[in-house]
Amino acid sequence: MNFALFVQYALSGITVGSIYAIVAIGFNIIYCTTGIINFAQGEFLIVGAMTAISLTRVVPLPVAILGAVVITTLLGGLIELIFIRRVRNASVLRLVIVTIGLSILIREAMLHVWDEKPWSLPYFTGTAVSTVTILGAHISLQVLWVLGVSVVIVTSLTLFFRYTTTGQAMRACADDRMAARLCGINDRWMVTLSFMLSAGIGALAGCIVSPITQTQYDMGAPLAIKGFTVAILGGLGNSMAAVAAGLFLGLLESFVVSVLPASYKEVVAIVVLLSILVFRPTGLFARRGTSALRTA
Amino acid sequence: MMRPRVHFPVIVAAVLVVLLHLVLAATDKTYYMTQITMSAYYALVVIGLCLLMGYAGQISLGHAGFFAIGGYTIAVLTTHNLIAWRDAPLIGTLRSLGLIAQWRDLYGNEVLSFSPGPAFVAAVLLTVLIALAIGLPVIRLKGHYLAMATLGFGLIVYRIVLGARLFGQADGVSNVPAFRLLGSLQVNGRAPFRVQNYYIAWIVVLLAMVLALNLVHSRVGRALRSIHQSEEAAHSLGINTYRYKLATFILSAVFATVGGALLTHYNGSIGPSEVTVMKSVRYVAIVAVGGMANLWGAMVMAILLNFLSLRGVFGSYDDAVFGAILIGVMLFAPQGLLRIPKLQAATSLLSRRLHG
Amino acid sequence: MRMRLAAILGVLVVGCALLVSGCKKTPSGPGPSATPIKVGAIFAETGGASFLGAPEARTVKMFVEKLNRAGGVNGHKIELLVKDSGGSPEKAISLAKQLIDEDKVLAILGPSTSGETMSIKDICQEGKTILLSCAAAEKIVEPIAPFVFKTPQKDSDAARRIYETMKELAISKIGVVTSNDGFGIAGGEQLAKLAPEYGITIAISETYDKQATDLQDVLTKVMSAEVQGVVNWSIVPAQSLVAKNMKQIGFDVPLFQSHGFGNIKYVEQGGEAANGTIFPCGRLLVADVLPADHPQKNVLVEYKKDYESQYKEDASTFGGHAYDAILVLVEGIKKANSVERDQVRAAIETLQGVVGTGGVFNFSPTDHNGLAKDAFEVLTVKDGKFAVYQKQPGRN
Which DSSP string do the residues of A161-216 spell out, in sequence order? Predict the structure, then answer.
């Protein structure tokens, strides 16, 4: 393999890795405050992207994305209020089942609201063929957008959880819900807020990756599977690590393709998922014995 | 002491199965038996999953994987044509042992392949091995991690059948021959065999029910329930929770594989759509709507919902119906549809009437 | 005793459900002159193959409405029963048995995918019900089951048209990428089989997932094999990624696609990267620019106009396959002047010169597809629109 080719594989890995990372961040927010893995996270992406695509017919792109994020954020809050909050004796098993049900319902609703055809947002800068050249290889400008937005999201989330009262309150709920309640934190509202936040970030992610991946009503689940593989790989709840894990998985897949038939590509993520679950469920980056599991 | 009370409902169910046949025959609707038979094989998966989820408290989002292992093993062994190796000594030996048979397909081609009997045994053995290999590490996981790991298992099976030429990739395997049991009895989906297959399927399902009920009402069942209520407490009482959970996992996998194998013979084919995440989720939905720890509820719901789904009653809302069921049951009827307070009041009223 | 009651209750529920679904099946009254002809259709309106099944279902519904308004066929109206298989073979099996045993339909249109078709091929044959599949794989009609037909053009002919064009462009070393659905697999096999005949070497052949979100890595691998051209054989939306990603990684060789590219949606998704793609396809996509005396001109323009005005979306060749299926059936009924399955089947087998959207159908007892290589036109994409491919003078 010559050098330019090597770089090209690496850039291709970064492209998909950045997509996985941005999906994984959404999982982490809800997990952080509630300890639930939201199986409907992938659907938030598609709802966001589809809404933005519909809106671009009447308003310019930035406004459409903003509108889509707001609408999906509200949808996330509504879903929490209507469904999650009402689950009686909410064990993990029940909540997992409810979010799976939600993911199916949202997906089928999208099939009937929009349709079965693929859509996409236009490239944010340039067109489908505009690229930048790095070390003799090429990468689409949109990937830079995805990476940039991921960094901005992770940084602001870290700041939010560390320095704002609301953020601290959300973390407190995650650590010990009862104690948080005793301190006067409205824990139910914090859960709603976390659903809104992750829906909004999901929608933003959906919009940004749409030019690269296209958007189709049933794409949420495959993206979500990659997303939570990455979330677990990085250690649930750790958004910074999720970005690293996302890029790692993307690069791994890309280089696997370079040596093995491409039809095995999809197996890579699952093998990674199963091995991490069995051998190191706290994630790749967690130090043993620390409680890094639930802090952002 | 327990036995008669456990087995009585099975006898009632058997009588009802015969009655249903008579009703269908009288109303000239025997063709409903096709979908009832198919649903019955799906019910096997659900009964197994009910043991695992309801009694051992372990979720599995990968049971369609076990169903497919059974179905695909059968399909490949009974259709993979060995005619090119007809003269190989190994084939000759297997043939003289009756493991391999020669037959002619619909288009007059000679096919030399494994007989359904040995293929069935192979499918069950393979499932036990795989369930053991998967179960050993996975059963130790809890909550989300278990859900994810079983989901991952299902996905791997899906990827393998979709990627391997042997399994027909996206097209699956078709032309699976019928499974001759005894004399003219055979698992065969053709119209002339409809009635006997209705009974074959029900016998298999009721046998599975007897097995599952016995297990639930035995020492093992009590141990399982104690695990479900409080694993720590069970453990401190000296119950080897891990071993019980693993055994249940393997048993439920075997139930699923038997369902998959027999349905593949009945349908004459199997495709990757049997291994999707959605299929696994459907089984979970049915167990939930049946009331989690309620074998009869799960069985009845499996037959009813699959019957309606296979007949296309839900139209293009098929998946949506199962999604709605999951949410609806979790929100409004965590004890399952058959135990909604009002219904329960009605049934207890009925039972008081019946017993005067 | 609760369990027993649960069982009784359950069976009662089953019984009620049976009655309800039984009642729904009562016929909606026979027509004034003759009894309606029942025709079944199994399409993947939802699920992973809905991009095929949805336009197919819309097309046959539209066709039958129009036909019935015009008085039906031989004085019979057509009663169409469309069933959604979700793309699952097991569901297709159940629905096919239902249509054959209960509804006693004359024929079944569809299914949309080759996996589903293969799993009901024998059922239709044994049930002596005509099956007009809208899936492309050649094994559907090879070996021939007397009752089974298909309307999409042959994969092998598409492969031949691609190879012929390659020879014109002096391309001899190629890379092949296919999607992992039935369409992609069948196409990949044909390409591999026919390559030696045209003196073409397939240097690399890769399969990608039908739900892929990015294909740069696969294409980088193809690029590293130093090929002169790429064939992308796929029917799924992910195929538009190939054009885009090739341009993005600076892989500048001609891109050939299959007849699965026959949807303007895929061109839109490819953006300007799709320009220059060469692919064999039925003439539906270039209906407007066909010469007025072309035999297919009227059929194509009419279908396109009807479909686009009724459903407010672009017509695709997928819907066209369903159009041809119902068209062939209606022509068969006309020719047989009967509604008996055997007679209609025999009539279809002898149909000659039926002008459909996919080409001109000439069936025979040994050809249950009826289309020849000239059913394909080699097309290209020019400024985001389909155009007939013309050999560029400078290039050879």
Answer: HHHSHHHHHHHHHHH-HHHHHHTT--HHHHHHHHHHHHHHHHHHHHHHHHHHH-B-
